[in-house]
Structure formats: structure tokens, C-alpha cells
Amino acid sequence: MIMKITRRGFVKFGIASGAAIAIGDNLFANADELGLGGKGVAIDKSKIKGADFDKVVPYTCLVCNIEDGGLAYIKDGRVRKLEGNDKHVSTRGRLCAKGNAGMWHIYDPDRILYPLKRAGKRGEGKWKRVSWDEAITEVANKIKANIDKGHPNEIMVKWGRDRSGGATGRFMNTLGTNTGVNHTSTCESSKKIGMEHTWGPDIETPDFANTKYILNFGSNILEAAYFMNPYSQRIAEGIVDNKAKLVTFDVRLSNTAGRSDEWFPIFPGTDGIVALAMANVIMQEGLADIDFINDWTNYSADKLSAYLKQFTPEMAEKYSGMSAKDIRRIAVEFASTKPATTYTYRGPAKHLYGSYNERAIMLLPIITGNVEKKGGYCLPRGMGYDQPDPKPAGGKEPSYLSTPPDYPLAHHKVSHLTPFWIKEGKQKISVYMNYMSCEGYTNPAASVWREVLLDEKLIPFSFTFSNQMQETADLMDIILPDCSYLERHDPESMPSSLWPWVGIRQAVIKPLGEAIEYREILKMIIHKIDPDGKRGMKKYWEFKDPEDYVRRQFDNIPGLKDVGGYDFLKKNGVWPIYGTLDPATGKIVDKNGNEIKPEYGIPYKEDANGKVTIRGKKYKGFGTGDGKINIHAASYEKYGFNPLPTYKAHPWHWNKDGSSKLKDDDMILTTFKWNVHTQSRTPNVKWLTEIVHSNPAWLNKATADKLGIKHGDLIRITSPVGYIVTKARVTEGIHPKVIAVSNTLGTKFGRVAAAKKSEPPSMWGNVEDPDMKNIWWKAEGVNPNDIIPATADPIGGSQGWYDTVVKVTPAKAGDKFGDIKVDNKKHFEFYKETMQYAYTGSKHREMHPEVKVEKLPPAELKMGH
Known about the structure:
alpha/beta
């Protein structure tokens, strides 16, 4: 019998079996049979081993924020394939699926290759192609007019994934504006603020490869979390080499949860109370490292033990649903197994009081003495680079949008509340600049962003650097198309492993069409504003080209200059090179074949100038003011927040007596990220969308049975601000009171993303792709962000992505798949509600009766953040 396999069936079979499939004619990337490392992987005296490629160019990936080291294989001026850079100490020759598919950001069939100017009303979708000079002149004139009026802060810069190595900040400082708004409050700002006030840095780097026990809170670390690629490699090593146990707390059975030894689907936002109860058990059972607590923290073990007694396992069970017996058992296992570590990502932090959750979880490695130990919870390792001289001084006036006075601890900003503040008139904006961001799609209350961006009274002029037409670019006045990440230059360094490194992003091919690198466009704008240098701006942008700019940033890094400086990075992609990749183990080894070892115990080094004195000796210490781990955070207490790790039950979910406020038909809406997608930049990448092109709502089977919903049924998800209509994915792999919808899919832009293979190409210079005719799937994505209200952690500023109370019902008469109905007036009501939890709000004292600070500082508009 001969089995008939259609292309669709073949692709499904290939994905299921782990096969790597590449389809395309000879104009595009061919399917290559790869040997170990691939043909041409070695670069020897600039000659390529293997005849299939003209050259191999190292680079740093930018599909997401992991910044993996990669190699681009070039033939006839085209990228033919991408692989991992085997010299990179963190990623060790491996790329994830998103990185492997990165070439299709260059050859996106709907890519914008020429400057565009709006030719109709905003949002009407009418554009005309213009010259670079015309586009730059209009942008420069609008900016110059505001500077000449003495209002540089009316120039707002909104960025998302800004990996320009400081070019954006340099541009703002040159103009004199402090109105810079990032994306971090929609990402992990409350995690950062929880960590910074505890031990200094805003991130951890666990030694997964050498650990024996991992408590993973709210992180899909094997496929979608921060540094997923290097961390998943090392978790695998820890499990195989050390028999490490992995325990995951997550509302959804992610691939990480599914590969864990134990999975606990706790109720959303209760990570903190579970961690505090575990810490209590560890202290009461005598399993804590008392000497470490007394020597290296600012709170004594006796006081901490007494404080933690209030957080009992039974209390944690009431909120989380995890049994008190399991809480005790896991706590004892964790404390009794050395070394051990925890890890968190957005799960604990993206709640109304996410910063408290982060600090509560940090207690576990701290009280067990697992900090900065082999196999433990380690500080990040990173390397810096400078900005070219001379450096602009920057703006002189504070910006409300950048440093909102009601959120004095939120040093990573509260960007998702920006449209509400603009609409309220908190700060006037005359020029709106958008870079690497799609706030009209990826933010909560996305419909409010679109409303504000459409309003020419609120935003008189706007421009973007996007090379994709999407929900935000469609609302701009001018589009200045940036290059793809494989056609540009940037410096890079990320704490993605226990070995610090610096790397570069360099143009592996010439930019397509008329696309120009971002930092070069910024230079063009400045030179147009200040052509003769009399304004004092041009001197800060006198580099020859983007490579020259980045080259100067590496001039003064000790050690790098000795091996060739920037030219070394051009050849190798990364520095230092700690060893070679052993193909038998996948690990980096030294010249003797031994696995390289990281350095531990950095804060514990004796240092005559150190911050910490213990028994007469001075030590380097941690990155806090006193050099110790601050279990007690005085900076929190100043504004009426609890200075100790604590748990605050969400007032939408819980009554004051600890009973549930949710009705029988109430559920919590959460979001998640697919392993082959980012939020908005990957849906038009054909290899990735062929794998995942739908985002049904995950619904627990028992809940579905109660609601009369079957797998694949149309359902309506109704929040307090609106509803969406999508399909149900009925599964046992989710908490019964939770419904989860990915925040990736649902865009209406891009022929691949929308599966519109018969739609004619756009007018803005796209690349035609012969694979368009092979689209076999339907685009079944409904993005939930329009119906998720904007809320903010009053401490860290994070969006409460996982707090929205919804009702789930079968679709109603007349409902169609993809329907979205939203009321922006109701969004505004929720914004008003969340402001009441700020330290200046009416509900702040009510939520913190235990904090006895008599008088709180007044809200002041200050420079900073």
C-alpha cells in the first residue's frame, strides 16, 4: 500500500517527527541536507569550507530579546540559511525555530522597502511613495518647530524592542526631550523592581546545568521565557547529568510544565503566597541557612522566622489550590537538596502586586543559602560598552509620561497607561515617534491606543521606522523603513549565561530596496535639523556610517582591543571566545578538552573597598546600597508599601476574609506566547505561521462540560470592557477557573499572517515570494488585547496581564469567529480604578493596613527613570 501524502500532510508529518523542512524555489532558501554543524560552518582565513556558500557572516539574532549568536550563510548576495554560532558561549551553536526562520524578515513578501506618506485620513490605509529627502525633511521640520517653541518634551519617543545600543537615547538627548516611553511595563518591570530593591540587579542567572532542584514559577522556560535557548540547554544538562528535579507552578500545561517532574496549576497570582508558605516551613523546620541570613541580609533570621509564621501552608492552600501537604513536601525537598534554585518570569509579576510576588519567591534561594553558589541562584554576568564621544547632555525638564509621579518606584516606566494620560491632558504631545513597537496591537486596551493615535488633536504628527504594515504603522503619517536585523549594525551584551560576553549585529547582506539602518536615519534627521552645526546637534552625529558608530562603542573595552577590537567581532561575532564547542557533548571546552567552568561567589570576594564587613573582613557585596541582600526594603516603606516580602490578594478575585469573590461563571483570562512567535513581528514569517496559525482559547474540560462547550466550538469571552469570539480548545491542561488565549495572532496585516494568498501585493515595494501559492492554512487568530483592561502594579508598574475577570459562554446568535466588540469608555473606568491603587490613590492605605508610615511623600514630577 502506498500512502498518499499531501504537502499539508507532509508538513504536519515533518513537524511531528522533528524534521526540518524548507520549501522554496532557487530564488529563496533551499532545503539543505545538513551535516554536523552544516556545510561551511567553519571560517578559516576568510575561506569557506564547502562550495555551497560564498561566505558565512556571524551576527546576533533579534527576533526576540534572547540575542542568540548566529551565522548567516550567503550565496549570490542572498541569505540561504541561518545557524547558531558555535563560538558563542551562551547559545553554543544553537538557534531556536524563530531564529532559524529569521531570513524571512528580510524576504517578507509584504515588507515596506520605501518611505511612505499618508495619502488619506489616518487609518484609511492610503499611502504614497515619497523620496527619503521629502520624508526626512517633513519629520525634521516638525521636530524643529517644537524645539524652536521651547517645548522639546512634546516630542515623544515610543519604543519596544530597542537594541540600538543607546542610539535612541542619544537621539532623545540631542533633541533635548525626556519623553521616552518604552515597553517594559507590558513585559517584566515588576519582576525587575522586585529584584532591584532586594539584591541590586534586575535579573537572575541560575546555574541550571549544575543544580539538583528547580522551582519554576510562572515561566515557560523551555520555549518562551527570557533566554529560553541557553537556559533550556542547561536545564536539560541539569536533568540528565545531575538528576535535577524540575517543579513548575503555572496555570497552563505549557511544554515546560509538561516536561516537569511535578506541575501545580495554582490560581493566578498566588505564586507569592505559595513561596511565603514554603519559606515559613523551611524556617520552622530548621532547614534555613541561618548564618547566611544573618551575615548577608539586612534582616535577622529570628525576626524573619517570626514574621513568616503568618503565612501558613493552609493559608496558601486556600488561595492557590495547592494542598498544604504538597507545599510542605516541596519546601522540605527544596531546602534539603543542594544546590537548588528558583526561576520566575512573567507569571508571578504580571499582577496588581507582582513586585511582592517576585520578592517572596526570591526568599527561597536566599534563606537556603543558594545565592551565588555552584548550581544555585546566581547574579547576572554582563559586559558593557560606551557611547561615542562627544555625548549630548539631554533634556532639562521632567516628563510626566516618562516619570509618572504616582509611581515613584516604577523606574522602568508605566508605558501602557500612556494613552490615558495623553487623553487626560497630563502632557501635550506634538510629535510621536514609534520604533520597534506595535502598541495598537500588543498592549492591553489596544483599542484605546488606536483611538489616541487616530486623533490628530491629541497627536498632530506621527512617524515610525517600521518595515511592516501593522496596526500601529497604519496610523502613522510618515513611514521611514528601517532595515531588518540581518541588514544592520548594533552592539550587544546580555546576561544569558554565567560567562559575560559582548557581540555585534552586522549587515550580512546589503539592505533591500531603499531601506536604511535606524541609526543612520536618526543621523539624517539630526543633520536636516542642524545642517551647519550651529544648533550644536550635528557634532553628536558625525560618524561615517552605522558600522563606524558601533566600532567606536567598542574602542575602550579592556582585552577586546588587544585581540583586534571591532574587527575581531566582525570575524567571530562574539568576544571572549572561551573555548571550542565539543560536538559530542554540546558544551564549550578548553584547549585540553575540559569543560569550561564559571566563576562563583562574586559578592563574597574580599575587597578592601567593599561595602560589607563580616567578622572584621570587608567583602565586595551585592549591588544594593549597603551591599547586603535587602529582605527589608526601606525604599518600599517610604511610599507606604510593605518593606518585607508579602502577599496581597487581588481585590477583584478575593474578599477581605480570604473567600473567593468570583461567581460560579467567572473565570480569569490569561495570555501566553507560542514557542515559534513573538507578539507582533513573526506572524508574517511563513515558516513560523505554517507551524502555528491559530490561537484557540484553552478551556478546562470539566469547565467546558459544565458550560456545554465542546472542542472546536465557537465561544464568547466577555470581559468588563467588551468581548471576543473565538474557538475553544478543550483540555485538561489548564486550571478550571482560567481561560488562556495567546497574545500573538490575530493581526489583519500581512498576506502570510492573514493567509490571503490570492490578495494582490501592496504598493510599497514588497518582495514577491513564490511560496504564497502554497499557503494551505486558514488564519484563525483572535487577539485578546482589546478586551484586557490596562491596570498597573503600584510598585513596579507592570500591566496585570493575568488578572482580568471574564465570563465564557457558547457563542450567541449572530456571533462570528473573530468578532471583537469593545467599549473604550469602560477601559477608561478601569484606568481610573487602577490609579486608586497607586500610592497616591484612595485604596492604597486600605490595601496596606500593616504599614504604619504616618505621612507619605507628595507626588512630585521629577527627572529620572
